[in-house]
């Protein structure tokens, strides 16, 4: 049995339409010129505070975060789809005795709501998300501490360098997925022990490790 922590955005689900639309509405409300597409895409994954810090001080960051969360809760959380074979992969993993968790920088109530809407929340022991300004390592560590998990049998699975850095900082095995928002090069440079290119590959990888 292994303990598997999954990132959400870019790993379990393609949430980019809802995230980008919510950022677009936020910048419009604040009267700030809209960043280009690549910049907006780079906001998928990091904590909100990290993204908004490029545009203003702490007061601005807090204001922008509140506006973003309003738009995301109203509309963005529903603009999401599961990646192909994710549900089947989670089902097999759970049925074969592995323990599954979510560790995301997304606001925790929003993460829970999204996974409920996608009808995959029941595969997870618990869904851990940001409770404020948590970094990825903070979120993962809450899960490790609560369930008294140890690194040898625990994995962090995600699509960006934030997932790899967060997992490695806690001495976890790290698996980078290439169907999300990060690049293979970035995943490898930031500590990915393994790479997989489609969800079902995870089943064979875990059998071999």
Automatic annotation (TrEMBL):
Alphabetized SUPFAM superfamilies for the sequence: HAD-like
Pfam families linked: HAD_2
Keywords of this entry: Hydrolase
Molecular function, one GO term: hydrolase activity
GO cellular component, one term: cytosol
UniProt key word Hydrolase: yes
Name of this protein: HAD-IA family hydrolase
């Amino acid at each position: 049995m292994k303990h598997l922590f999954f990132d959400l955005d870019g790993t379990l689900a393609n949430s980019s339409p809802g995230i980008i639309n919510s950022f677009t509405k936020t910048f419009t409300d604040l009267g700030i010129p809209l960043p280009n597409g690549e910049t907006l895409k780079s906001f998928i994954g990091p904590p909100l505070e990290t993204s908004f810090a490029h545009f203003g001080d702490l007061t601005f960051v807090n204001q922008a975060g509140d506006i973003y969360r309003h738009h995301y809760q109203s509309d963005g959380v529903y603009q999401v789809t599961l990646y192909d074979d994710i549900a089947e992969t989670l089902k097999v993993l759970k049925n074969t005795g592995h323990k599954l968790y979510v560790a995301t920088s997304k606001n925790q109530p929003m993460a829970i709501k999204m996974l409920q809407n996608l009808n995959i929340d029941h595969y997870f022991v618990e869904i851990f998300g940001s409770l404020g300004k948590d970094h990825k390592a903070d979120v993962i560590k809450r899960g490790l501490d609560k369930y008294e998990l140890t690194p040898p049998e625990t994995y962090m699975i995600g699509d960006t360098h934030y997932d790899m850095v967060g997992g490695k900082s806690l001495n976890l095995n790290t698996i980078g997925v290439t169907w999300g928002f990060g690049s293979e090069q970035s995943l490898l440079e930031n500590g990915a022990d393994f790479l997989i290119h489609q969800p079902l590959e995870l089943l064979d990888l875990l059998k071999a490790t």
